[in-house]
């Protein structure tokens, strides 16, 4: 078990299996020292625990928890191509999409679920640039989707 996975366990999280792609793409690809993940939905055992719009059927607090699940799925995707999460030098960028009710403007607070998990699991290496985008709808009516880019040791 990597030190990152041990830290996740200490925080009460288990790294899940990689979520299989929903279409014609790979969950993660490596290019040089960088790993780029596809957008990760908050899947648990192959299912979305909640569906709908944040600020509508889904509360911001629920969505923040779902963003945390997305980050865990993203780390699993990174591990699938990097081999070991301890090879992460830095999380470079996080992009999050929030399926939002028309008047919902709290996308950054929702994405804090992912950002806080990455920071807690990776320390300074988990501090990153980020975009939080509100969208009309996401695949499978998911409330949140997160993608990450990480730099690995050479």
Automatic annotation (TrEMBL):
CDD domains: YjgF_YER057c_UK114_like_1. Transmembrane segments: none annotated. Residues 5-148 form the Endoribonuclease L-PSP/chorismate mutase-like domain. SUPFAM superfamilies: YjgF-like. InterPro entries: Endoribo_LPSP/chorism_mut-like, RutC-like_sf. It comes from the Bacteria. This is LysR family transcriptional regulator.
């Amino acid at each position: 078990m990597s030190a990152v996975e041990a830290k996740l366990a200490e925080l009460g999280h288990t790294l899940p299996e990689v979520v299989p792609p929903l279409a014609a793409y790979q969950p993660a690809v490596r290019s040089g020292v960088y790993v780029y993940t596809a957008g990760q939905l908050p899947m648990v055992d192959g299912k979305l625990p909640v569906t709908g719009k944040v600020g509508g059927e889904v509360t911001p607090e629920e969505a923040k928890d779902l963003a945390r699940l997305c980050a865990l799925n993203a780390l699993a995707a990174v591990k699938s191509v990097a081999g070991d999460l301890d090879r992460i030098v830095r999380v470079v960028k996080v992009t999050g999409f929030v399926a939002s009710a028309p008047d919902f403007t709290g996308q950054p607070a929702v994405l804090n679920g992912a950002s806080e998990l990455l920071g807690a699991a990776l320390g300074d290496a988990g501090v990153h640039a980020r975009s939080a985008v509100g969208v009309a709808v996401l695949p499978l009516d998911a409330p949140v989707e997160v993608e990450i880019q990480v730099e690995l040791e050479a």
